[in-house]
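This part of the workshop introduces the protein records we will be handling. The question running through the whole workshop is how a given chain folds. To make this concrete, we reproduce a full record directly below:
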Amino acid sequence: MEKSSIVLFILVVGTMMGALDSTIVILAFPTINDTLQSSLVVSIWIILAYMLIAAVMTTPLGRIGDIYGRGKMFNAGFLIFTLGSALCGFSPSIYHLIAFRCIQALGGSLMQANSGAIIADTFPRNRRGRAFGYNSLGFTSGSMLGIVLGGVITSFVG
């Protein structure tokens, strides 16, 4: 397998994970709300915090990737995202969960902000469109899988 295929695979997985986590709590939301005994007004921040940070931070984090290295920032995003995900799983309260979702969103934003630039740096012009297409497919499939996985986890795991 050539280097560019490995890079693309990692980018697609990272993009898919970030998109997956933006939607995974939608079907699980009522269960999370009941389990953590929270009001709807507070619990809605589980979703809003992730979306807000992703919307606000993607562009500045892309610029940071331009300055300090896109690959380094993508890898840091992967690490931060994974750490945030683990912390979310062990959240003792709704407020911890919201804070850990913010960490998760920061990592997801780092990955999303730098993946396109890495594709532009890695692939020659005649292969770039296909690489961007695969990356978009990772985002779209992650968004859809998040809803499905959220329902499956809530139904079978709790």
Remarks:
- The domain at 3-149 is CATH 1.20.1250.20 (Growth Hormone; Chain: A;).
- The chain has one domain: 3-149.
- Residues 125-156 form the longest helix (32 residues).
